[in-house]
Amino acid sequence: MQRRMPFSSAIAVAGIAAAAGYAAAQADRVELKLDGETTSQSSNLPAGADRPLNTLLEGRASFAFDADLDGTAGSVSVDRYASALTLIIRVGERARLIVRPEYEYSNYDFDDVENIAPTPGSGPTDDPFDDGEIFGFTGRFIQPLDGGWTVIVGGGARWGYEDGADLDNAAVGNGFGGVDYKVSDKFKLGVFGFVSSQLEDEPLFFVAPSFDWRINDKLRFRSQGPGLELSWRPRDEFDAIFELRWENREFRLRDDGPIPEGVMQDQRLAVGVTGKWRPHPFIELQGSVGGYLWGEIEFLDRDGIELTDAQLNPHLYLGAGVTLRF
User: Are strands 306-312 and 315-325 parallel, antiparallel or unpaired?
Assistant: First the structure.
């Protein structure tokens, strides 16, 4: 069997084309950032940027309901729990440095699965993957320039692994950079390049445009990491966000599992709505509901050879979170 073509690259390009903008990263959120920035954090100069240091502490949980596996028996559901710390540091009069460590725990539940991960010499397994963890960090430097230009550069690293896997073989790194231009008080346009290594796969590289359009005082439409976001703010303390996003996760498998030192890749395309309520300037509560329109789980051996992949039928998800601002 030959080495598979990097499927994530194809999804990224397709997402960009479909969105006519930067619709394919972080996420996590693969990203011009790691999975999951907040609204204040993703603007070029975050709220409260006049202070020397701003801190955001985030916690979130989500549950993806049972998704039937297309073409094979069984289903899979997953619940995730994540936390992140974001430090927004003022550097001089105009520049900002954003540093973000984060962690995510995923509990996968495969049910009645018979042949999703057949391994040469061992036959099929009904328990192809245990719990997985991802931790990483990203740094980003933002430098506004004269004439409405802003330069953004950064990079990071991430470790994704099944419980019991070797961390030395679970790391990937990424780097990004680009510029945006303030066309008017309501519209910004930019271009960014992104490169990332992948577990047992070819490096991912692409260049894509980004945009941020403040339609009026209540509506905002923009590219946001690996997706698109339309936000509505009827009141200062409340936001409703309609989003389309691509999620991509990779996990190094444990040495004594059915696919020793292999890789599981989980990719999904989500559409949903998130409500954000700020009962106090330093507290934000979030609730999300939506569905995954498409998904795929792939298993590769330690040499990067695809053993099997399973398409996920459309399924629902729920999420909740809290952000504390200091």
Answer: unpaired
The DSSP result for 129-176, as a single string, is: ---EEEEEEEEEEEEE-GGGEEEEEEEEEEEEEETT--GGGSEEEEEE
* Contact partners, residue 267, CB within 8 Å, separation at least 6: 7, 8, 11, 246, 247, 248, 249, 295, 296, 298
* Beta strand pairing call for 149-162 and 171-184: antiparallel
Q: How far apart are CA 294 and CA 191, in angstroms?
A: 27
- Residues of the chain with confidence (pLDDT) below 50: 1-47, 49
Collapse the DSSP code of 261 into the 3-class scheme (helix H, G, I; strand E, B; otherwise coil) and give the result: coil
Write out pLDDT tens, residues 265-308: 999 999 999 999 999 999 999 999 999 999 999 999 988 888 88
Q: At 19, which helix (H) or strand (E)? A: helix 7-19
User: What's 2's DSSP letter?
Assistant: P
